[in-house]
Amino acid sequence: MNNTPTLENERVILSPLTLDNYEKLISIASQDKLVQYSPSDIATPASLKNYVEIALEQQKAGTSIPFIIYDRKHNAFAGCTRFMHINTKNKILHIGSTWIGREFQGTGLNTQMKKLMLDYAFTTMNFEKVEFRVDERNLASRKAVEKLGCTLEGILRKDVYLLNGFKRNTCCYGLLREEWQSN
């Protein structure tokens, strides 16, 4: 039923996010303001389950591939991420809905995970472009995608409502396959 691949390297294992394993993320998802720049509600066990159910519905529709993140260095589940807005006709997808616990931030985990996903998207899935959408105020995430070689292609003004009612500006970053291969 689930044809989500498991992606791994020496640092991280990205395996299918399911209703059987999401509970391993409850303690991380409940960290205060963990996803303050995101429109997603994951703070309670019920809201996290709903978040996963939506991701799995998108997966059935062919527009999303959600992963649970396991950090080999810390021998612990760290969060989740997904391929999303999958557009096979135009060979473009987004990497997003990524969150990892504070104890994993700044450890190199996110970079290793993104490199694994980018390589898979460009090499195995044969996509031509990967996009990232980031809240304009989220400087750490913006720097992280820029470090991967992504280009800021524009800013969508007052684009997405967050849980607190604030309407964020969204930075659109893109990375072309030829830019990734020349990295």
Give a description of the structure.
With 183 residues, this protein is α+β, with helices and mostly antiparallel strands. The chain has a domain at 7-128: Aminopeptidase (3-Layer(aba) Sandwich), CATH 3.40.630. It has helices spanning 26-29, 45-60, 109-124, 139-147, 177-181, and strands at residues 7-8, 12-16, 64-71, 76-87, 92-100, 129-135, 151-161, 167-176. Strands 1-2-3-4-5-6-8-7 form an 8-stranded mixed sheet, with helices on both faces. It is globular.
Q: Write the CATH architecture name of the domain at 7-128.
A: 3-Layer(aba) Sandwich
The rounded distance between the terminal residues' Cα atoms is 36 Å
The residue-averaged pLDDT reads 95
CATH structural fold name of the domain at 7-128: Aminopeptidase
- Main β-sheet: number of strands, strand sense, barrel status? 8 strands, mixed
The CATH superfamily label of the domain at 7-128 reads Gcn5-related N-acetyltransferase (GNAT)
Fraction of residues in helix: 25-40%
The radius of gyration is 15 Å
Shape: globular
Please state the structural category. Answer: alpha+beta
Strand order of the largest sheet: 1-2-3-4-5-6-8-7
Q: Give the SSE order as H and E letters.
A: EEHHEEEHEHEEH
The residue ranges in which pLDDT falls below 50 over 5 or more consecutive positions are: none
List the SSEs and their pairings.
Layout (H helix, E strand, L loop, with lengths): L6 E2 L3 E5 L9 H4 L15 H16 L3 E8 L4 E12 L4 E9 L8 H16 L4 E7 L3 H9 L3 E11 L5 E10 H5 L2
Parallel strand pairs: 5-6
Antiparallel strand pairs: 1-2, 2-3, 3-4, 4-5, 6-8, 7-8
